[in-house]
Amino acid sequence: MPDSPAESEYSALVESFRAALGAQVIVRQGRTATEYVYELGPTIDCAVSLCDDDELVRSLVDAANGVPVVVYGETEVSDVEEVVHPTNGIESFTRRVASVVEDDLRESELVDGNKKLTALSVHASAITGCESVSEVCEETLAAAIEALAFTFCTVALVEDDQIVPRASTLPPEDQNSCHVSEGIAGRTYRTRETQVVGDITADADALFSATRKSTVSVPLGPYGIIQVVSDSRRGFDEHDAEFLEILAGYTTEALARLDRESALRAERDRLHAFFDNLPVPAVYVEEETPDGRVRCEVNRAYEQTFQRGPNRSNPSVEAAFPNETERRLFADYLWSGDAVAAEVDRETVGGDRQTLELTIVPVPSSGPTGSAYGVYNSDRPRLSARHELS
């Protein structure tokens, strides 16, 4: 604030600002004001001029570099935020400054939020591409620290009714497991609701050491929680919780995908054990995108029955089988998700030709891989789905 028009009015304005804004008001005189604003511009919400010196007001605007400048008085400088004439009174001027500060804070929050969302999107790609639970936890922690600027963060998963830290920036002595029925972490997990605690010491469920004063705790679906803590009371607000919930969404989806893939692998292992011991010929076909290469496996009965089987590694489904009907069936139904059956004519090991019913059963997949089992049966049972070749 440069020199005021009247000392008493100057003092009254300063006190009005402090009372009405509920914010820190720094007073500087003359050229010192422009130097101060220039050096600390990014941390200032609004610069106020209480003089009619256009040269000084121009210097203040230039030094502000985008920080809004409000003039109490008269000025010919056109690019100030607003000019309020003294005849409107101190209260009117104070309200206007408060409005400018509020608008600037809102814009700053929006800019900061967009930066965080952009940074989170980069980490989201990394999280969804992780191939293990440990990688997901570590990448989630990195996102909380690097994209959201949290200092103390823990990613914890549930193991045998215990919430166990899997990645954390807390000191080792604070990385303790707890039962799902205990603590703010347990409450978060049980309720599946975000917990924003401004004063941990006043929370009956708190298990943190006395150095932790506030926390935001967000559930990771059925898998666990992500929690940030601060050494200050009321260290977080609703925006912090919202961004942490966005991150938790990415993490939960990544963990769910790994869960699905693990279940599919277990199911495939069971199917393979059954497949190898089938008393009838059977083949397993797997095709990967985008190159479309095919991997084939056959069971013992297949090797004992047919004179010729599929090549184990081929550039396409069509090139894998010696029979046109088989090629068509696998090409058309490998990715369909529906079982289908059709008659095929195959040459056996003894040189005879035999008409069999080939049933193709696709295997569900969560990734870029299509796979199916093909079972050859001479009894030709009736199926609800039958493939008709033209």
TrEMBL record:
Residues 367-390 are annotated as: Disordered. InterPro entries: GAF, GAF-like_dom_sf, PAS-like_dom_sf. SMART domains: GAF. Residues 379-390 have a biased composition (Basic and acidic residues). Residues 132-265 form the GAF domain. Signal peptide: none annotated. It comes from the Archaea. It holds the Pfam family GAF_2. This is Gaf domain-containing protein. It comes from Halogeometricum pallidum JCM 14848.
